[in-house]
Amino acid sequence: MGMNVGSEGDDDDVIGVINTTPLVDVMLVLLIIFLITVPVVTHTIPVKLPEEVDQKYAAKADNITLAVNKDGQVFWNEQYIPNQDTLLSKLKENSVKRPQPEVHIRGDQQTHFESIGKVIETVQQAGIIKISFVTQPPARG
Question: SS3 for 134?
Fold first, then answer.
């Protein structure tokens, strides 16, 4: 630390220098604290996260494509399904096939979630295991 011990004739002069030594000491202490605590904060349970794979939609003949329009109407491969019971019976017919077909749901962006949820519930009641959602890929520009 620096000290100014006064000199002859300069008693009334104002010292215009800021002593930065305490500031540097505090900053170094904070830096050491952060370096010690950061590894503790970022420590998590080791989990192997799935990697994102961009796959093209492959339409197989045995896959079931269900479309739900914005009014909640359900279509099976472009054929209108009037009610949930009809959908359930058709899905049960297909659920016994081996290998079991996949259900691909295409929901309109403005469809209420309740309509999509009913379709998912019906697919589960039929015993079909694999359900996929078909989405529009983002525009790349």
Answer: coil
Q: Is the pTM of this model over 0.70?
A: no
The two structure tokens encoding residue 23: 């500031």
Contact by Cβ (8 Å): 119, 72: no
What CATH number has the domain spanning 64-133?
A: 3.30.420.270
Binned at pLDDT 50, 70 and 90, residue 24 comes out as: very high
Q: What is the mean pLDDT of residues 35-54?
A: 69
User: For 136, how many CA atoms within 13 A lie in the half-sphere containing its CB?
Assistant: 6
Residues 6+ apart with CB under 8 A from 70: 108, 109, 110, 111
